[in-house]
Structures are given as structure tokens and as C-alpha cells.
Amino acid sequence: MTDPAYAALLDHMKVPAALHGVAGVLGWDQEVVMPSGGADPRAEQLAVLARLAHERETDPRVGEWLIACGEASAIGEAPDDDGARSTNLREWRRGYARATRMPADLVAEMAATESRAQVAWAEARRNSDFAAFRPWLEKVVDLQRQKARCLRDETCDDDWDALAEGFEPGMRGRDLAPIFDELRARIGGLLAEVDAAPNPPSRAFIELPVPQAQQEAFCREVADALGFDFRRGRLDRSTHPFTSGSHPDDVRITTRFADDNLPDALGSTVHEVGHGLYEQGLPAEHAWTPRGCAVSLGIHESQSRLWENQVMRSEGFWQWARYVLRRHAADVVKALTFEDLHRGVNRVERSLIRVEADEATYNLHIAVRFEIERALINGALDVADLPSAWNAAMAEVVGVDVPDDARGCLQDVHWSCGLFGYFPTYTLGNLYAAQFYRAAQEQLGDLEDMFSVGEFSTLRGWLREQVHAPGSRDLPDALCRRISGQALSVEPLMAHLTQRVRTVYGLT
Ligand code: ZN
Predict the structure, then answer these.
(1) What is the average per-residue pLDDT within 216-227?
(2) How much distance in Å is there from the Cα of 429 to the middle of ligand 1?
(3) 55 belongs to the catalytic site
């Protein structure tokens, strides 16, 4: 049965999808190989691509075709469609509504302000000078509040909800607040146990000097063993690790190396491999359409966290990885025992910097940001009071004294480029990862037995089928219920953290 409006949409929307893919490759190029002199022309190239994509996405004909598809809904879906038509229409409608509600002037002003604010932020962080960044952040917050008022609908309780919807469909502050309350209380209890533990893991592995070439060879072998497909992907170096690409057949991941921090290089590599496996596992037959895309940032992060935390920090993984490491760096690691390696990557410590935090306290760093950004957007906190609010929250929630703003409220890039409502997706990723992994263990048997002999394909195949291949067919809540039989809950993550911490600290 012909459905000309849907056919027109498929054809029309392939163009912005391809443009976003090209922008992804250019963004990767910028961080990995571009000479620094190329920054200005690259910014112009990216701005042109963004404008072309936005024009295409907000073309009034898109609205007309969407209405026509709605009227033609009685046509229904072919049985072998696997949710493609309904998913594509749902996501195109959502994107069109959000894009067309934003005045073009506001979009342009935000883009111009945020790129300059990001430059001001980098300088302010270098000098630990909040006063220099403050006027920029005030402008960014003001624009974000204008944006929120354009996007807010009856499903939102406040302006923050309208912004968060852009990163995680269905995520609301009212649902997150009790989750963070419970995490704070229970992780606080775990930290009390850690503080009282008589025999904490040594820092021997964390501080071990290992030549970068050996670290890289080790990390590449691990990435390959976990299933990252180097014929359809690359692993390179960048200052801040990330995953980018344009298609399941071309996925770019990056990592970083320092002479004396192999666990960081390995953790970054495995984290990005998790993102990369999701991208490589998306259904290529639905490429260029929403059905073939990741469903949300929280689900994307669940895939990186699951491989980084549930797998790489497990005893089973190190039963295998210690021999791989010995092959690549025998002379430097020969003095370390299995316990040094496994316990070393699982040290729990109150700290100042989010990106260096361990798997338990990490969520406390996000709790601080969630509370503060909600207050900033909803008008309960003035930008001028951010440093004092930040320092008070870090003392109360994480238990550290912040010595300066560079290591305090200036540490993250997100707010300078207008990413408000983004941070909670990191903790959602941890929660989904624990809940999915528990379901995998119930269905697949003893996964750590498999890891101990370098067998990761059973878990990867399960994730491919359960999470990757569905793309954005199931929204996060539906996906979570289908995989685990339950709504998202704090319980699996806390059970995982409690067991891990007690084992590593000898508290069982
Ligand atoms: Zn990530």
C-alpha cells in the first residue's frame, strides 16, 4: 500500500541525518588530527552544516507530511516492519515540534554565545577565576531559560524538565529527586564502611609507570577481545575520550594515555568501547532514520558503564587480563599480584574531580550538579552564588573541601556550552547498567567464569539483541521494563556497589 507522505519523509530526512554524520566525522577530526590553526574554518564549516540540517528539519512540508501520515495511520504497519514506521514518526514529530518552537533568532544567539562562553570558561578555569566567567554564565543561563519556556509543555513541572527532555525522553526532576536522595543516603553508608576498613587497596597499580606504547598495545588487545570491530571502527588518542562516527560501519572511539596511570587509560578505552559497541550494533538496515539511532544518552551511557564497571572492574576480567597485561608489560607489572590489580582499579575515595571519581562516589558528584543546575534554571539560585553553593554541596554530599573554583564549579565544560539537564544521564547510565547486567546474569549464567577465559561474546551478543538492535524503537522506560521486567530502580546498582566494595575492602 502506498504511503507517499511517509516515503517523502524518509527521502527528505535522510539529508539532515547524513549532515549530522558528516559533522560527527569533522568533530572527530578536530579532536584527533586537525592542526590547531584549523579551528576557525572548522567552526564555520560546522555552523554551515548545522544550519543546513536545521533548515531541512524545520521545512514546513515536514509538518504537512507528518499530518498526512497521521491521517493515513489506518494503513498500519507491515508485520516485518519491527516498529520502524511508528518509531520514525514518533521521533520526527518530537524533533519537529521542538525545533519549530524555537525562534531562529534565539537559536542563533545561543550558538554564538555558547561558543564564546566556552572559550571564556577554558580561560577562567586555567586561572581559577570565576568572576571572569560569571557574566558569560549569566547570559547562558538566561538563554537556556528562554529556550525552556519555548519548549515547556504540560508534561513538564518546571523549566529544567523542558531542557532535560532534550537528552533523555521522559526524564523528569520529580522522578530523579528521590533517586538521588536514596543514592546519597546509601552510598554515604558505604563510604562509612570504607572509612573504617583496616586494609584499603594500595595505590601501587594506579601509580605504576608503564610505557605508553605498552599501554596502548594492551588496551587495543582488550578492545578487540571485548568485540570492538576494527574493520568498522578506529581507536585513536584525544585529550578527552569520546565516541563519534557517522554510521554503524564507521565508529570512531578515542582514549588517552599518561606515563603513570594505566587504569585511567584502560577505563577510558573500555568505556568508549562500550559506546562503540552500541553504535556498531545499531541496525544498519535502518541507518539514516531514527529507528536506527540510539534511543537516549542514558541508555548510551549504560552501555559504556556496563563494560567499564560491571565487566572491567570484575574479578573474572582480571583473571584473564592479568596475563594479557603481563605479555605487554612483563617487566613493569611482574611485582603486582592479582589482588593488587583487581583491588587497585576498585579503590573508593572521596575526591574533588568528577571525571576521576570511582564508580560509587561518581553518583554523588552528579547529585551535586543535579541539585545546582535545577536551582539555576528554575531561578532559586543566582549565578553569583554558584561557587558558595557548589562548595557547600560538595562538603555536604561528597565530604570534601573545595580549595579553588578550578577544582570546584569550573571543572566541567557542560554548563558553558548550554548543556543543562545533561548530567543526570550519567547516573541513569549507571542505574540502567546494573539493572541490565543483573538480567544478563540471570539469563546467561556465570558471566565472570566466561570473562576469566577471555570470553565476552555471550554478553556482547545478548546486549546486541536486547539493547543495540532495537535502536530507538523502545523508549528508555519501556526498554528497561522489557529487559529486566521492572521499572528503573536504585536497588540493582546499590546491590552491585555494596557487594563490590565489601569484597574489595575485605568487609564480607
Ligand atoms: Zn560515556
Answers:
(1) 98
(2) 9
(3) no
